[in-house]
Amino acid sequence: MTDWPILSTVTFLPLVGVFFILLIRGEEKQVAANSRHLALWTSVVTFALSLVLVADFDTTTAEFQFVEFVPWLPEHNIAYHLGVDGISIFFLILTTFLIPICILASWEAIGTRVREFMIAFLVMETLIVGVFCSLDFVMFYIFFEGQLIPMFLIIGIWGGARRVYSAFKFFLYTLVGSVLFLLAILFMYLDAGTTDIPTLLVHEFAPAVQTWLWLALFASFAVKLPMWPFHTWLPDAHVEAPTAGSVILAGILLKMGGYGFLRFSLPMLPDASEFFVPFVYSLSVVAIIYTSLVALMQQDMKKLIAYSSVAHMGIVTIGIFTFTGQGIEGGIIQMLSHGIVSAALFLCVGVVYDRTHTREIADYGGLVHRMPIYAFVLMVFTLAAIGLPGTSGFVGEFMVLVGAFQSNTWVASLALTGVILGAAYMLWLYRRVIFGELTKENLKSITDLNWREVGIFAPLVSLALVLGLYPEPFLDVLHVSVENLIAQTRGAADLPVADVPERVPVPTLAALN
Amino acid sequence: MQTFVEPDYLPALPELFLAGASVTLLMAGVFIGDRSTRLMTWLACVAMAIAFVMVLALPDERTTTFFGLFVVDGFAAFMKCLVLVGAAVTLIVGIGYVKREGMNRFEFPVLIVFATLGMLLMISANDLIALYVGLELQSLSLYIVAAFRRDSLRSTEAGLKYFVLGAISSGLLLYGCSMVYGFTGTTQFEGIAEALVTTVPGNVAAETGVLIGLVFIAAALAFKVSAVPFHMWTPDVYEGAPTPVTAFFAAAPKVAAMALLLRVFLGPFHELAGQWDQIVIFVSVASMGLGAFAAIGQKNIKRLMAYSSIGHVGYALVGLAAGTPEGIRGVIVYMAIYMVMTLGGFACILAMRQRGQMVEEISDLSGLSKTNPALALALAIFMFSMAGIPPLAGFFGKLYVFLAAVDEGLYGLAIFGVLASVVGAYYYIRIVKVMYFDQPTEGFDRPVGLELSAVLAGTGIITLFFFAYPGPILAGAEAAAAALVP
Predict the structure, then answer these.
(1) ipTM above threshold 0.95
(2) Inter-chain contact B418–A179, Cβ cutoff 8 Å?
(3) Which of A246, A452, B76, B400 shows the smallest number of beta carbons within 10 Å?
(4) Is B295 helix (H, G, I), strand (E, B) or coil?
(5) Distance from CA of B417 to the nearest CA of A (A)
(6) Residue A156 is nearest to which of B407, B425, B433, comparing CB atoms?
(7) How far apart are CA A310 and CA B143, in angstroms?
(8) Calpha distance A89→A309 (Å, rounded)
């Protein structure tokens, strides 16, 4: 490894792009075009750099890698401390991967204030990447909550008809959770004398305190994830946000809740996590069944996908709180898969929305006649969302359910009904939009995907399939870190480490046949 | 016969200089007349800058002079610097307004210098009499500047209200001081502190009497920092007073009054911490709550800033409620950041002119992001910062006071505080919404003026990039807190 601070580079490179976008002068059209290109190239270079991380990543250790450490507020033991491990690196790559796609997807959809939009997105990228590689609680919080500002503007300026209401709801909901999280951080700091995350990971908090800290952290992560019943901001925000905004929300922002549970709640507060397992299970099961039923009834495509996100996140929380290797790895894979699939589904909605300016399911039908490529792309992602073997959705769901069966059969069975309901609403959506006769007047001249759009979907389709067919390389990277996480959680919670069952090899298509 | 002992003038050098400067400015103004206003304003700023340098040049260790009436320490130096910067910056942002809006009188800068002098004396007061004299010098000057546009009904009303209520609070203060003097036998802070340890305990009458005195003094000081329940004058005076004057009210005098509050509670009345703690917690909770909820319905941006400042005082007092050196550091950091944000916010308000007329409605800001992106960006930064969103400076202010509160086990106060900040965030982001989400109206007159732009850029950059280099303010505040609470 060289001494080059690669994590800082990846984190702050988008801000360099922002700086250059700010320098652009000229006519409005020219400015818009230049900012698009600049933003795209900045994010592509950032993505390429983040791939260097993967190439240099050492999968044999659970230690944080690429660590950077600079004292920031030395009298408080608060430092600029960056690093990634097998868990966070995936979210980091997912972020740098999705941002160029978001920018491409907004190429024509965003026609007003293009420069500001691109700036907001690049700032978002810096903040999100910062969240996933911060190893200091105060820094984490700053990146975590700083996102409210650009996201508020993205929803509010470029959103749909009820954008103001949605933007406020998003902002205030998230803020309520976050401020309690902040108090928990302050408490942890005073208890342990540092905000350094690796130190706090091995710090033991008194069991009585853990419960309160856990609840404060839960307030933030449950809103962000979102878990039922804290999810009501999500359908509003998703529906009103511009396509790229929905993509980033569903693809990455939601994952920060799951990441928070994995990084903080479990290893730092193991007793409380153990104590709250029934609580989390209950909420997750309700989320899976209830939001799936709600999704069945939606008239609006984006809303349907938004509710399905809540259901999928329910599966993630079940996986995380099984404390088993399969469950947690499954939860992470499920998050990655959802990051790709739901992002792609929102992009699919965006494609037809750009052409017809409606998201009502009833306004579509028979698109297969005019848009065969689109029908294929949507099919792949519909099946991936359902969890068909061979797609990314399957691997995650399957592993979570394997983990859940070991811990609680009832929870696993109830979660399975969610999978069935998921198939129902997704297939029904697909049938209503794609199949049938093409009767609507305005659809008769609709055009299929253009090259830009194919370019957007191609990497997403291939990733969804690769992750589904051959997840082993991904799991390899995860494995050591997850084992370490489980050891930390179990070890501290006085559970015998031997309880961890042997890892079942993950079935691939080949194994199934 | 006692001989006169010459006091040591050196520690009071900035005050003496400023007193001389203000009298000189006054004389010069009388001879030259109103056309000298601009010159006077700049000269006043220069005088404050020189005083600033003097404050910095004086040694940091605690020295008293004028027979113990006057004290200089690290705390006083830091707060004086804040006050001088705040006063000078408000003078600068007001230049354009003063010229346009019929306030072009040379007395204005001179009165501001007098008020600033009063504030410096307040901060350095080490005796109840010195405290009162400093406070009154400040208040009387402020009453006049509040009513400075004497042809404007609103301005005179604001001045009158401020005067009447201010006079009541001064009365309360004097009454409290006399109670304390009566039961401790001294007006000197050290003497009071000593009496509270030696003679007062065990004497029920004295204990009660000093307590009542403390309550009256606390009420008067709460009035000066406009904390609930003594906040009623704030919205009316903020709205009615000419905008540069409002900016001045919101910045320097608040800092000075807060400094005084800290010194009085932690100095002479330190023994009674258990008593005043309850008062501070109540006032803090009430201010945060009222500041959060009452501002929601406001349409006038100056009124909104008034309620916002009430809320901010509540947050700052959270640090005092903790009472630890960390808490005091939190208060000082909070006030410093608050002052920067407030000055920036008022600089934005001073730029709100349409066709030569000042406008003050929030709805006038509609679509500002399109008509004047730079101004909108600056105001958005200040609003997000006041809401306490990281990485802006306002977040760090809240971080330090809540850190101290959690450290002292004041969990209820901390939880109430952060939740109130969420409610407060609603009205701050509403302004962002008006500027960024709404359709533009006609926009504001341009250019906004060189001084305003400079102040906007300066305060905006400090607010935005505080996180990158917080060292100087944090270290200064830490030293100041250490000087106050050893």
Answers:
(1) no
(2) yes
(3) A452
(4) coil
(5) 10
(6) B433
(7) 59
(8) 22
